[in-house]
Amino acid sequence: MKASVPWLLGVCLLGGVAEAGKPRKPNAREQAEVKQALAGAGEPVAKKTFQVALKGAGSLLFVPVLDFTVQPPLRLHLVQDGKILHTLSSSAADKAWPILQFEDVSFKDVNGDGFEDILTLARYMPGVGPKAGKPFHQAAVYLSRGGKSFEPVAKDVGDALNQPPPSKLPEVLKRLKKISKARLSLPKPAPPAPTQVSASPSP
User: Fold this and answer.
1) Is the CB of residue 88 less than 8 Å from the CB of residue 69?
2) Contacts of 77 (CB under 8 A, 6+ apart)
3) Domain boundaries, the chain
4) 115-173 confidence digits (pLDDT tens)
5) HEC states along the chain?
6) pLDDT of residue 189
7) What percent of the chain has pLDDT above 90?
8) What is the pTM of this model?
9) Are residues 114 and 28 in contact, defined by beta-carbon separation less than 8 angstroms?
10) What are φ and ψ of residue 105, in 5° steps?
């Protein structure tokens, strides 16, 4: 019986690791971290605020904020240790149409590089034009650069994911599977410029 104890302990530990990457609702301490980080700048969408562990970034809080005193109103923050670690770029939809609601988020590796990417879904309703008064969804995908930053997919990929407008994130994931991994890869960062050393004047 004694020999089985380490094995059972190992199973429990492995189970804990497997659960670590799953998003969960923030506890009271983490909610206080969010409040500290935002410092009154907008209201977090509480039902869509999650604690999650992402490879390369560690444990952090995903915090969507709607602040209609600024344009565009939606801000997507990654909060860690009471500070905003990163703010995701506004999507093309955020810049084009009035937002009604932030609806969903998912954390999945969509390009096979081993790092979780961020997928979001929001609902918009144009006030003018042929789509005026007709709500519709638009998705955004942010690719992880080693967990250190998250960058939006190329415009043509984003357009393909949103035509026709998806109703749910699982639909977006199905469309992503039809896109080549090459198109879902981030361009390599430009190498740093070589440092020029000025020659010392001759004596």
Assistant:
1) no
2) 37, 38, 61, 62, 63, 64, 65, 84, 85, 86, 87, 88
3) 21-177
4) 999 999 999 998 888 878 899 999 999 999 999 999 999 999 999 999 999 999 999 99
5) CCCHHHHHHHHHHHHHHHHHCCCECCCHHHHHHHHHHHCCCCEECHHHCEEEEECCCEEEEEEEEECCCCCCCEEEEEEECCEEEEECCCCHHHHHCCEEEEEEEEEECCCCCCCCEEEEEEEECCCCCCCCCCCEEEEEEEEECCCCCEEECCHHHHHHHCCCCCCCHHHHHHHHHCCCCCCCCCCCCCCCCCCCCCCCCCC
6) 72
7) 72
8) 0.82
9) no
10) -145, 150
| Residue indicated by tokens 């994931």 | 173
Angstrom CA distances, 90 to 21, 23, 94, 97, stand at 25, 22, 6, 12
Confidence of residue 199 (pLDDT cuts 50, 70, 90): low
Q: How far is CA 116 from CA 14, 28, 38, 97, in A?
A: 19, 26, 24, 28
Closest CA to 162 of 96, 78, 109: 96
Mean pLDDT of the chain: 86
Tens of pLDDT along 18-43? Answer: 333 689 999 999 999 999 999 878 88
